[in-house]
């Protein structure tokens, strides 16, 4: 009888020991899970950013279609507008502004031979477009983009001159290629939109909204979904956004 009692006590001890180990394991696992979740929430402010930038507008149909896609996803983009394209399309420019997107300046004529004939001509065209945007929207834009990019044009003195006029420059590090060939297939545009380096602290994507950039509209949701799935945060360029330009000429 005493032997049976000892046996039962031993079995009871084993059961209690197993329950204690199991309880400790579950508690520890939950603790680390909550720690990881807490760390993830804390670090969401450090998410990498992607900027969708759209050049050459405003343009009927395509610019509106791009705005429709951005609104569907509740994402803000940056439209670098050409001054001569605004006449007769003031409503599109106003729509860009009223829906909370950024407006940048992309010269007035977009004529490479003219705008790159001198620094003064380039700056005058930016100021002309700036005044036109302000007259229509009431907003004074100070963010600019060189047609074709700043590479080969910008040196230290030129940069200082632009800064003295209050301008900040924004080139790009991902290019859809739709400015050179608007008929690139949607899949190729999507693939081009994924061509970035892992060490980029932010991604600035170049796309266009000319009348013939209809494939860009179709590729845009694919690009947005791709970066959303990677956890990127979408932002519009503003006056507070850190400047991004290519290497200066010596």
From TrEMBL:
Residues 48-235 form the NodB homology domain. It comes from the Bacteria. This is Polysaccharide deacetylase. It comes from Clostridium brassicae. InterPro entries: Glyco_hydro/deAcase_b/a-brl, NODB_dom, Polysacc_deacetylase_ArnD. CDD domains: CE4_SmPgdA_like (cd10944).
């Amino acid at each position: 009888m005493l032997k049976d009692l000892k046996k039962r006590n031993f079995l009871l001890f084993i059961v209690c020991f197993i329950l204690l180990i199991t309880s400790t394991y579950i508690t520890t696992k939950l603790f680390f899970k909550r720690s990881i979740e807490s760390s993830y929430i804390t670090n969401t402010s450090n998410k990498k950013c992607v900027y969708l930038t759209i050049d050459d507008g405003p343009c009927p149909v395509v610019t509106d279609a791009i705005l429709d896609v951005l609104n569907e996803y509740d994402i803000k983009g940056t439209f670098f507008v050409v001054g001569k394209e605004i006449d007769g399309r003031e409503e599109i420019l106003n729509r860009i502004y009223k829906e909370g997107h950024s407006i940048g300046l992309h010269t007035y004529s977009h004529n490479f031979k003219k705008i790159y004939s001198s620094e003064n001509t380039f700056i005058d065209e930016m100021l002309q477009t700036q005044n036109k945007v302000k007259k229509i929207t009431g907003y004074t834009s100070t963010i600019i983009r060189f047609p074709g990019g700043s590479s080969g044009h910008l040196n230290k003195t030129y940069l200082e001159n632009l800064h003295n006029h209050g301008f900040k420059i924004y080139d790009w590090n991902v290019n859809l290629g739709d400015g050179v060939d608007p008929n690139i297939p949607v899949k190729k545009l999507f693939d081009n939109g994924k061509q970035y380096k892992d060490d980029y602290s932010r991604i600035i994507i170049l796309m266009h909204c000319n009348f013939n950039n209809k494939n860009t509209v179709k590729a845009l949701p694919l690009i947005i979904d791709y970066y959303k799935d990677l956890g990127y945060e979408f932002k519009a360029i503003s006056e507070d956004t850190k400047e991004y330009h290519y290497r200066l000429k010596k």
